[in-house]
Design a protein that fits this description.
132 residues; 2 domains; rod-shaped
Length: 132
């Protein structure tokens, strides 16, 4: 009986150690899983919305603030008014506002050139003259 009791105690010790090891390991895994960042679920890929194609003349009219049927005089007046308002010389040198004014003037000049491209050469040269 002594040998049986000894074998029982050895087996009981072994099972107890293994049980503690498994419980500890499970607890460590549980904490690791708990504090591990969650794996992002892949979201369905949706195509990007199409970039609207803007007609250069429409964009130029928007920049200058003129309508499609406006005469060249209205376009000229708007062009000169906007150029005067956004003159970089009116702002402190080297400031962010002066750089923005220069950028605006570049857009205004581009818009004016787009809208006046349709004019034939004599019209471009003599559009400011008043001939009766």
């Amino acid at each position: 009986m002594n040998e049986v009791k000894r074998a029982y105690d050895m087996l009981r010790g072994y099972v107890g150690r293994e049980y503690d090891r498994v419980v500890t390991r499970d607890r460590e895994d549980a904490f690791a899983e708990l504090y591990q960042p969650s794996i992002p679920v892949e979201s369905p890929v949706f195509p990007a919305p199409p970039i609207p194609v803007v007609d250069p003349k429409t964009e130029a009219r928007r920049i200058l603030g003129v309508q499609p049927g406006d005469a060249i005089e209205v376009i000229d007046a708007s062009y000169h008014q906007l150029l005067d308002r956004s003159d970089p010389k009116k702002f402190d040198a080297g400031t962010e506002i002066q750089a923005k004014a220069q950028e605006i003037q570049t857009k205004i000049r581009w818009a004016y050139s787009v809208l006046t491209d349709d004019l034939d050469s004599p019209s471009k040269r003599f559009r400011s003259l008043e001939i009766e």
